[in-house]
Amino acid sequence: MIRILLAEDDRVMREYLTRALERSGYSVSAVDRGTEAMPLLQTERFDLLLTDIVMPEMDGIELAQKASEIAPDMRVMFITGFAAVTLRAGQQVPQARVLSKPFHLRDLVLEVDRLFEAESIPTRN
Length: 125
What we know:
- The structure is a single chain.
- This protein is of the alpha/beta class.
- The protein is 46% helix and 20% strand.
- It contains 5 helices and 5 strands.
- The chain has helices at 11-23, 34-43, 60-70, 83-92, 105-117; strands at residues 3-7, 27-31, 48-52, 75-80, 97-100.
- β3 (48-52), α3 and β4 form a beta-alpha-beta unit.
- α2 (34-43) packs parallel to α3.
- The longest helix is centred in the N-terminal third of the chain and has 13 residues, at 11-23.
């Protein structure tokens, strides 16, 4: 099963995204800030970091950069409602995908599916 680490500071959005991804067959660990994600990245293996960009304490771009040092093969997808930070994210983490809010849950799931359809990921326990 593909494992996703979701970092989203908005509680309702975090719960909404978690439910949608789990219903689509993904395993999701959700945190409300980048600083909470770091210990999980150091102790667990994830296939995807799905992170909001604008968060307290540590923004999603900094989180993605630190995560890539810990797990260089992990994919990254940013979610944001701010056009200006979308450009910055693309420059600082060029291999990441960016999904702009508002988006439909179906679009999020399709984007995540696309990240993994090109290659077969072994099941992770």
